[in-house]
Amino acid sequence: MKKSLVVMAALMAATVMAVPASAEGEKVGISMPTQSLERWNRDGAYLKEQFEEAGYEVELTYSDNDQQKQVNDIQNLISDGVNLLVVSAIDGQALNTVMDEAVEANIPVIAYDRLIMHDGSTYYVSFDNYTVGVLQGQYVVDTLDLENAGDKVYNIEFTAGDPADNNAGFFFNGAFDTLKPYIDAGTLNVVSGQTDFDTVATAQWDTQTAMERMQNILGSYYADGTQLDVALCSNDSTAMGVTQAIESDYAGDNTVIITGQDADEANLKNIVDGKQSMSVYKALANEAIVTLDVAKAILAGETVDESFIESAGWEFDCAYDVESYETTPGHVCPSFLLVPNVVTADNIEEVLVAPGYYEQHDDGYYYAVQ
Q1: Alpha carbons 149 and 218: distance in angstroms, whole number
Q2: β-strand 335-338 against 331-332: which pairing, if any?
Q3: Residues 368, 265: contact at Cβ < 8 Å?
Q4: Reduced to 3 states, what is the DSSP secondary structure of residue 74?
Q5: Tell me, what DSSP letter sits at residue 334?
Q6: 129-261 has which CATH code?
Q7: What is the location of CATH 3.40.50.2300 in the chain?
Q8: Which of the following CATH numbers is that of domain 2-127+283-339: 3.40.462.10, 2.60.120.10, 3.40.630.10, 3.40.50.2300?
Q9: What is the pLDDT of residue 12?
Q10: How much is the mean pLDDT over the chain?
Q11: Is the pLDDT of residue 369 over 90?
Q12: Using alpha carbons only, what angle is made at residue 357 by residues 314 and 175, rounded to the nearest 5 degrees?
């Protein structure tokens, strides 16, 4: 446990640059979507810590998954005289007016983790979101050895994320595109027939909503004992709801492959206990580091392009993308995309503990290092 803390401290110390002279008196506003999901609390904490250690004054807000509240929060940050905004949008389509205000005030905006559909977004910092879904889909392919399935048929159901979250479509498409050849071949069978994003989406990534929808699917299509082999869930909060539904409302064999994303503490417990199969981990501390370094360069008036990655000297993979993320048709937001990792019961120590992100407690479970 102590070793993990030391490693984490070393990581943070090694990646935080010296305080720039321009940081003195400059304020950064950070707008996070909600505190109801574990990951956003971690994002907010990492970002605030990074910026404050670099010498910036930080104002951090959470908007309770309320779009209008986030607009008001950002307007207040603008009124408070922030020099730069870091915004993770509740709804990437719903910030047009306040983004116009930021542009008018000459305040650069870094879209954090979720793309803001407005050309005033200066840069986008996230993970390769399509790859998140690919990793989930490939896990299913590999675990069931679908390439060699022969006449065997496996039943699968999909649970996607919030339609208001631009990332949700990338997650779903990455997974579905990976699995579609096996669906087309009949090796995978979606018993409910629900395969389009709008049907399988989960508003606000809500656990209860995901649970209730899966209960309906189980009651309608699996009550006779039909085997459910895979529940492809786009993140951990939906996976938690699906797991609860399977535990309480499923008549068949409970050895169901359940995917997730974020490596939330409760879901890691389920992975250790064999209830959830995997999660995709995104190193939020690294995402905060990229955001800080991009912000420092913006405020210093430096050029931020592909060469910036080499000069930054990050000890993790990050790509500069100027093709994938359009904010309006024909206008691409330059993006910094980090690489996610698969987490299973077999590699938690390697992926989460060794780098200092998590530590194992006496109860045998894993907890994020703060």
Answers
A1: 25
A2: unpaired
A3: yes
A4: helix
A5: P
A6: 3.40.50.2300
A7: 2-127+283-339, 129-261
A8: 3.40.50.2300
A9: 43
A10: 92
A11: no
A12: 80
**CB proximity list for 349: less than 8 A, separation 6 or greater:** 360
Question: What six digits make up the tokens of 212?
Answer: 């209730």
d(CA 100, CA 211): 38
**Contact (Cβ atoms closer than 8 angstroms) between residue 75 and residue 29:** no
Instruction: Report pLDDT for 13.
Output: 41
Tens digit of each residue's pLDDT (9 = 90 or more) over 309-327: 989 999 999 999 999 999 9
DSSP tally for the chain: helices H, then strands E: 13, 17
| pLDDT recorded at residue 23 | 72
Question: What was the pLDDT predicted at 14?
Answer: 41
Other Cβ atoms less than 10 A from the Cβ of 330: the count is 7
Whole-angstrom Cα Rg for the chain: 21
Q: What distance in Å separates the CA atoms of residue 343 and residue 347, rounded to the nearest whole number?
A: 6
Question: Cα 180 vs. chain centroid, distance in angstroms?
Answer: 23
Q: In this structure, are strands 318-321 and 335-338 parallel, antiparallel, or unpaired?
A: antiparallel
Residues 6+ apart with CB under 8 A from 256: 228, 229, 230, 231, 246, 250
pLDDT, tens digit, 9 for 90 and up, residues 4-38: 433 444 444 444 444 444 576 899 999 999 998 88
Average pLDDT over residues 224-238: 97
Contacts of 134 (CB under 8 A, 6+ apart): 174, 175, 177, 178
Q: Which residues pair with 335 in a beta bridge?
A: 124, 321
CA distance 322 to 122: 12
